[in-house]
Amino acid sequence: MGHTVPELKDKSLFIEKCLVNGEWVLADSGEFFEVRDPSNGDLIGTCPEFNTHDAEKAILSAAAAFPSFRRTLARDRARMLRRWYQLMADSAEDIATLITWENGKAIAEARGEAAFAASFLEWFSEEAPRVYGDTIPSSVTGNRVIVTKEPVGVCTFVTPWNFPAAMITRKVGPALAAGCTVIVKTPAETPFTANAIAELARRAGIPNGVLNFITTNRNVAVVGELLATHPAVRKVSFTGSTAVGRLLMRQASSTVKRVSWELGGNAPFIVFDDADIDAAVTGAILSKFRGSGQTCICANRIYIQSTIYNQFAQKFADEVRKFKVGPGFEAGVTHGPLIHQRAVDKVHQHVQDAMTKGATVLVGGERASEIGNNFYLPTVLTNVTSEMQISCEETFGPVAGLFAFQTEKDVVEQANSSDVGLAAYFYTADIKRVMRVAEALEVGMVGVNTGLISDVASPFGGVKQSGFGREGSKYGIEEFIQVKTMTLGGVQSHL
Ligand code: NAD
After folding, report:
1. Active site residues
2. Each residue's pLDDT tens digit, 371-412
3. Is 426 touching ligand 1 by the criterion CB < 6 Å?
4. pTM to 2 decimals?
5. Which atom of ligand 1 is nearest the CA belonging to 265?
6. pLDDT tens string 463-482
């Protein structure tokens, strides 16, 4: 199916190369891979198929740039980030266009992401000059203890396709603010958004070698291993699936690198019977169906207290019936395609599994092949139980499974019966329950009476197998800083 992609206002932001040492380059081998529009399979463009030899050049250029970049004034790094933020804000519409084109999400959501992505550069431009040290009263006579903060060094980042812009700036903003240099391995599905952002960084005056953006598809396993093991690299930060996170963590341990992992989730969304049901429906819709269900903090298990189950299910299904599924640029479309056929197959498999085990389809439950191969109808399932795949695996698609629960104790137990713990949500009007349940949930982030928790000012990250480390907020920069302790001895104090 054809659809019209708006022209970029600044066509020079569409780049089919990699950024290494300040220059846009191809792979030395000349190899490349194709990137396709998920809504119709059309070719968008090609990107260099980097191998380990190409990737090592990027690592060495970041290593060469580090000694001088770490010495730049924090105030100057702040100004660079601020200029970059402004350029991203000025090009927000082009960035949104690239996001929708290669990721598929509806253009309104893509605009939201473009603004969210830029906000990390603004935020960390403000944090850069505020990395304070300490002086500590020593327990040894004559000693003075001074603590300084230093950048960790060369960092490698591997990021996913579901937020082609924000997952990059959320790591690069704090890294550059701290004085680190960086190689980003961008996702093979969405490299062009990343390249536009990188070009704006160049225009903002980020020095050559400080920021390198590389692409690879067939070679991802060996390039990934190099990024996690190269001796010049001091820190690896990864956002993506728990399976790849585990692999990179093993690899990074060989040279004891600093690591932070933002991995998969399986968010519980709980509605107690004292909650404002309409508000809970709105929150559940926002949380569950953002990016057609392809965000790591999407509600994956929706638990409704049995007394309000039917009422909630009807209202929720009515809202889902209002969605318009289609290519993200089309007027009125609220929900775009999934990223590829594999994702559609997994979603359909979760639905089939639930149906054979007794779930009922209220809305959807089928592929929307008449729109395109990667489309799936937003789906609401009732009578969902813990025996079904959907209860223990991340669906990563537009399927809402509604579970019934009886008591607060039961639902907290069910919510915690997962080996991942990224986000959780609950709705209640009881303030004591707010504290009790929020404290009991085994997750890194809790939304109470809201389905939207992402905010540059809030720490983002998980517990259990959702990973560790926090992005955004005042904590985000700490991932890129190491502490140095200086002990000055023999200070006589006879004054
Ligand atoms: P993925 O793990 O398959 O891919 C993520 C990145 O890893 C991509 O750049 C990919 O090219 C790369 N990769 C794949 N195999 C690799 C290997 N062997 N070595 C090195 N790199 C490799 O995940 P995905 O399907 O792209 O993204 C979806 C997942 O990401 C979901 O599980 C979602 O929950 C998670 N996610 C988490 C967060 C978070 O902040 N916690 C945010 C967004 C997405």
Report:
1. 262, 296
2. 999 999 999 999 999 999 998 888 999 999 999 999 999 999
3. no
4. 0.97
5. 34
6. 999 999 999 999 999 999 99
- Nearest ligand 1 atom to alpha carbon 467: 41
Please tell me if the CB atom of residue 220 comes closer than 6 angstroms to any atom of ligand 1. yes
Q: Is 262 in the pocket of ligand 1 (CB under 6 A)?
A: yes
Q: Of all atoms in ligand 1, which is nearest to the CA of residue 245?
A: 2
Ramachandran area for residue 21 (φ above 0: left; ψ -120 to 50: alpha; else beta)? left
Instruction: Say how many Å lie between the CA of residue 111 and the centre of ligand 1.
Output: 22
C-alpha 239 – ligand 1 centre gap (Å): 6
Q: Would you state the pLDDT for residue 466?
A: 96
Dist. CA 193–CA 191, nearest whole Å: 6
Average per-residue pLDDT for the chain:
97
Distance 487 CA to ligand 1 centre (A): 42
pLDDT tens, residue by residue, 152-174: 999 999 999 999 999 999 999 99
Q: Which residue has the tokens 């399986």?
A: 266
- Measure 305 CA to ligand 1 centroid, in angstroms: 34
Q: Residue 241: CB within 6 Å of ligand 1?
A: yes
